[in-house]
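User: My instructor asked us to take a sequence, write out its structure as tokens, and then describe one feature of it. I'm not sure where to start. Here is the sequence I was given:
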Amino acid sequence: MTDAVKRALDVTLASIGLVLSAPLLAVLAAAIRLESPGHPFYTQTRAGRDGRPFSILKLRTMVQGAEFTGAGLAIQEGDERITRVGRFLRRYSLDELPNLFNVLRGEMSIVGPRPTLPVQVQQYTERQRGRLAVKPGITGWAQVNGRAALPWPERIELDLWYVDHFSLMLDLKILARTVRMVLAGQGLYTGETGGWQGTL
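Assistant: Let's start with the prediction itself. The structure tokens for your sequence are:
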């Protein structure tokens, strides 16, 4: 699959997704504001293709300023900073819906390795940096093969396999498996670090 075909698929799916999810996004944003003060959307710097930084957009699932309290960027299961609405959003991965804007801006793809923090990229080995050869995605091969249940090195190996084998059929397969996983609530992230064992 060429970059042009993948980009066309990204723009088509992201555009359809945003149109269909706009009413839901409005309701979720209102629910977030009603439960806790602060902006309903959350931005954070992530590493994109070739390590270029960009601001990822998500629905806020934690109290305002959570990254400066408690465990900081590390998020544990049952973290008290996660709001009730936030737990619901994470359960169904709805907090990632605004990632569709990142896809339209060309910073992300629908399918690809999940974008990580720049501090994590700085600790990659030369081999692990291979996962940066493609745009990060909303979902990916590692996400449909265990997600946070996998050790970090294994997740990266799955991402590297995707980089070497990505195709239209593989992307469609990942999308189909993603839908099933979200509905079943399997292998959900316990936090932004996604099993990271290094220093944050």
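For the description part of your assignment, you could build on this observation: Helices lie at 3-35, 84-91, 99-104, 118-121, 152-165, 168-184. Try explaining in your own words what that tells you about the chain.
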